[in-house]
Amino acid sequence: MSSGFERKPVEPDNATIEDLMSVAPCTLRCEDGVVSVGGVPLADIIEEYGTALFIYDEEHLRRQLRTYKEEFASRYPESSIIYAAKSFCCVAMDRIVDEEGCCIDIASGGELAFARAAEFPSEKLFIQGNNKTPEEIEEAIAARAAYFVVDTLDELDRISEAAERRGIRQRVILRICPGIEADTHAYIQTANEDSKFGFNIGNGSARIATEHALGCKGIDLCGYHFHIGSQIFALDCFSHATQIAFDFMDEMRRDFDFTARDLDIGGGLGIAYLKGDHPASIAEFAEVTTTAVKTEAEKHGYPLPHLYTEPGRSISANAALTAYTVGAVKKVTGVGTYVSVDGGMSDNIRTALYQADYEAFVLEHAEEPRSMVCDIVGKHCEAGDVVVFNRSLQPCKAGEHVCVLATGAYCHEQANNYNKQVRPGVVMVADGSVREVVRRETYEDLLSRELG
Ligand code: LLP
After folding, report:
1. pLDDT reported for residue 345
2. Ligand 1 mutation pick, 83, 86, 318, max ligand atoms within 8 A of CB
3. Cα separation of 12 and 206, whole Å?
4. For the chain, which ranges sit under pLDDT 50?
5. Residue 446: per-residue pLDDT
6. N or C, where is the chain less crowded by C-beta within 10 Å?
7. Can the peptide bond before residue 162 be classed as cis, meaning omega within 30 degrees of 0?
8. What distance in Å separates the CA atoms of residue 325 and residue 284, rounded to the nearest whole number?
């Protein structure tokens, strides 16, 4: 296929919606052929808000945040959860994160603007990103953000100067790069030796950064951060990174008399996109990571730091589905079947970018077996505009609705206006009611930036 996807013959899996529950929002039900989320039939939501549409299960989002908090706190009381806003950011989500008692990881001035619009408490803001602009630094300091996670010496100086001008010392955590390859797609590995992220431990940069930060008048150095990648299934990568971090922290204590008060082990826990996927649970992740921290601390006689973790995908991905309307079904003899929907790489670029895989079902035939193999394709002018490649689906026709599961993370966030497509709206469903939290874009929105 010219899109870069490699087509292999597959048999239909004959799965029904009941077989897809492990990747679905926690309140998704199918009773007498009626599929609902949060007690509201999807057909009713679609009728009111149209397609393409992101439908989030609010209970699922809250449940994930609470599970993280409980699983960590029960094993390691001095711990906090920082939600990675980049996986799904809107004002309503930022409010939920605050209500559930979690902190937030902000990766840009834009995400900061959203947090501020949600009146997110400044003492729970963690400012991240490998190239914060001087304006973003000023805005975040002015907003009294709790911590900056810092990636470069240039930035340390900029933050220090900006803090000094305001007569404060800014709390800073240094992002260190342990130099390991996480078990995931190369595009989302972030702690290799060859990475733009963090200060490399192996080549001495992290040591230089520590010494530098300790000498900056405007900086209160609090500890270290690593984030090894995303969609990780093998938890031993986290133990390995923790071990490298503690060896390094011990060295810094010996050489500079600096003891880290805070340790942030990043995010990255994988989720189930396909019914056969078996990611580690949040409890298992908490067990492995807190055990690694406690073991390493004991080994080095190091006081236990406050522990942070930064999940994004494992909070938001399975909380949502994308609903589309089928525009056409085309059978190409000797090749396959294309089901064209009213969205595509503008609302889900993950398939084109990472060869991501998803489960989908046809709303009107959810209880029937998925007896055909097809590509669910979008409406954009590219062969690579595929949402689901070469997978099973119930036979369907124009006017029916396809729901793609586990699209809650990095889909709405990475949405774009290719072909001047308007981005979908977002609704949240809870306890039998639906609220629109992001409205669908309009042509007026698109034209509002045009000056020509
Ligand atoms: N902390 C930092 C510093 C990060 O860079 C990330 C994600 C996270 C936490 C959250 O990681 P998570 O728990 O979501 O795995 N667009 C890609 C994913 C990029 C991840 C970027 N950083 C995708 O669609 O798969």
Report:
1. 98
2. 86
3. 51
4. none
5. 98
6. C
7. no
8. 38
Report the pLDDT value the prediction gives residue 185, as an integer from 0 to 100: 64
Q: How many DSSP H helices and E strands does the chain contain?
A: 12, 21
Q: Rounded to the nearest 5 degrees, what angle is found at the Cα of 95, between the Cα atoms of 89 and 96?
A: 90
For residue 318, the model assigns a pLDDT of 98
Catalytic residue at 381? Answer: yes
Cα–Cα dist 105/9, whole Å: 42
* Distances, alpha carbon 267 to alpha carbons 20, 68, 168, 216, 308, in Å: 25, 11, 29, 28, 9
Q: What's the token pair of residue 124?
A: 């729970």
Report d(CA 410, CA 425) in Å as an integer.
Answer: 15
3-state helix, strand, coil in the chain (%, to 5): 35, 25, 40
CB contact at 8 A, 322 and 27: no
Query: Which one is catalytic: 89, 381, 403, 411?
Result: 381
The verdict on the CB of residue 184 being under 6 Å from ligand 1 is no
In 228-287, DSSP assigns E strands to 262-264
Tokens of 10: 């597959």
| Residues 205/152, Cβ–Cβ less than 8 Å | no
Ligand 1 pocket test: pick from 313, 322, 355, 414 the residue with the most ligand atoms within 8 Å of its Cβ: 313
Is 198 near ligand 1, meaning CB less than 6 Å away? no
Rounded alpha-carbon distances, angstroms, from residue 377 to 342, 356, 402, 425? 9, 14, 11, 20
Pick from 436, 356, 362: which is nearest to 399 by CA?
362
For ligand 1, the distance from its centroid to the CA atom of residue 133, given in whole angstroms, is 20
Q: Give the pLDDT of residue 415.
A: 98
Going by their DSSP bridges, the two strands 372-377 and 320-332 should be labelled as unpaired
Rounded to whole angstroms, what are the CA distances from 166 to 68, 148, 159, 160?
Answer: 36, 16, 11, 10
pLDDT at 335: 87
